[in-house]
Design a protein that fits this description.
6-stranded mixed sheet, elongated, single chain, alpha+beta, 19 strands
Length: 383
């Protein structure tokens, strides 16, 4: 294991930073970065009862032109669930069976600690490096993601900051550290469909209008639609119903409305506008009396092989001997916001087998190699 990375990681895990509470994690990281020459900006956003902590820290090199490489991530963690089901206190970092146990150990405080220590070693060896190194951290990734990275990106854009490449420290490895890098993500768009009928006695259906019966043919058609065929980087777009509610609680009442929640995970072959239009066409053709409210949480992004992908893949090869797999699978991340202002965004971090679970943990033996991969990537891009 790498002792400095472990020490910082344990300090981060010990802070109960359940979203959106940063619990001092960013202040701890900023205190590590300032002596290395980083200019740090605390950027709180959001209402007083849901205040989000954000940090932008940047160090410009003196060795000439070069890219700005950003390390991005989140200091917040998901709730623990029933504490009594944990083998040890989720906020007391615990060593057992060659692993470090605690909430955030995999998602994603290990990456943050490794990033900081990689930068520390890189600056010591290359104080006059090219380009710039930056950190973009938020405490609103595991929550609604309204006042975190998206707001910082707006702030950076208004300042005219140039971001050339970004590594988000999400836990992307599947079985071994380095076996997978996310070089893109699908878009995510949700809808809430309310189909209106007429409530009435179930014994007199001719005096009522059952929204369940009316909606089912349209919903079945939507479930069978082939939205697109995907492409070399993305699977086909999927449409899934997540919740379906109707009824008054009584067995002898035809309900007055049906509410269906659904979600698109879509590829670059489709657009939000096009998907919305196709859904409305189906609903209109079935003659439904409905309201449909849309929520777009992120557009798809893709970073094709180029300087960042090649530098990171080469670093993984150097440290682990693995040829990493590029993938766009999984859910969304804050990379969707950063990609709007940064042309190269990838995600890379430790094994994700225990993220969000009871007894979340990471391999102690992976701390050093993870730090070294980030360090080697810095060397390839900025030395």
């Amino acid at each position: 294991m790498h002792l400095p990375t472990l020490t910082l990681l344990e300090q981060l895990i010990a802070r109960r930073s359940v979203t959106p509470d940063d619990a001092g994690c960013q202040a701890l990281i900023a205190a590590e970065l300032r002596p290395l020459g980083f200019d740090c900006h605390d950027l709180p956003f959001g209402p007083d009862d849901f205040r989000v902590s954000n940090l932008w820290a940047k160090r410009s090199g003196t060795g000439g032109d070069g890219p700005t490489l950003v390390f991005a991530g989140h200091t917040d963690v998901v709730p623990t669930g029933p504490v009594e089901l944990w083998s040890s206190d989720p906020f007391v970092p615990t060593h057992r069976d060659g692993r470090l146990w605690g909430r955030g150990s995999a998602d994603m405080k290990t990456s943050l600690a490794a990033m900081v220590e990689a930068v520390r070693e890189f600056v010591a060896a290359h104080p006059d490096h090219r380009g710039a190194i930056a950190f973009l951290l938020t405490s609103d990734e595991e929550g609604p993601a309204r006042d975190g990275t998206v707001k910082v990106c707006d702030w950076l854009e208004a300042r005219g900051e140039r971001l050339d490449a970004c590594i988000v420290g999400e836990p992307t490895s599947v079985e071994r550290l380095g076996d997978m890098v996310k070089n893109g993500r699908r878009g995510s768009m949700s809808g809430r469909l309310t189909v209106r009928g007429v409530q009435g006695h179930i014994a007199y259906p001719h005096l009522a209008k059952n929204p369940i019966h009316l909606a089912m043919p349209a919903l079945a058609e939507l479930a069978a639609v082939v939205w697109d065929a995907g492409n070399d980087h993305f699977p086909p777009t999927s449409w899934q119903i997540s919740n379906l509610n109707a009824g008054t609680g009584a067995t002898n009442v035809i309900p007055g409305e049906l509410v269906a929640d659904f979600n698109f995970r879509f590829s670059t072959e489709s657009t939000p506008e096009g998907l919305q239009a196709r859904v409305h066409e189906v609903l209109d053709r079935h003659g439904l009396d409905y309201r449909l409210d849309w929520s777009l949480s992120g557009r798809p992004f893709l970073t094709r092989p180029g300087p960042l992908v090649e530098a990171l893949a080469g670093a993984i090869r150097d440290i682990t001997g693995l040829e990493t797999e590029l993938s766009t699978s999984g859910g969304t991340s804050d990379g969707r916001f950063i990609a709007r202002i940064c042309p190269q965004v990838v995600e890379f971090g430790p094994v994700n087998a225990t993220i969000h679970k009871i007894d979340e943990n990471c391999e102690l033996s992976a701390l050093g190699p993870l730090k070294d991969i980030y360090l080697r990537t810095l060397e390839r891009l900025l030395a």
